[in-house]
Amino acid sequence: MLPGIFEEVPWSDSITDYDKQNFRVYLQFLDYCADEASIEEMAERILGIDPVLEPVRARNAVRSHIDRANWMVTTGSKYLFAAD
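^ that's the sequence the OP posted. Answer follows.
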């Protein structure tokens, strides 16, 4: 796993420090999803997890990040543009 990347994304109903620090990672996931990349490809290329050696860990970590990336697009974006 790459430094600063968790296996499971910390979940909250608002944007977290993890979200702010890993926004580019979320964008990578959304981009790979748009290109119909496999979970295995995303695990290896984005997270640095070998999906052959750790298939369950790879799948869970990718799913967690995709879920949060989707939340950021559908719900979290309103927090990005809200006034403090």
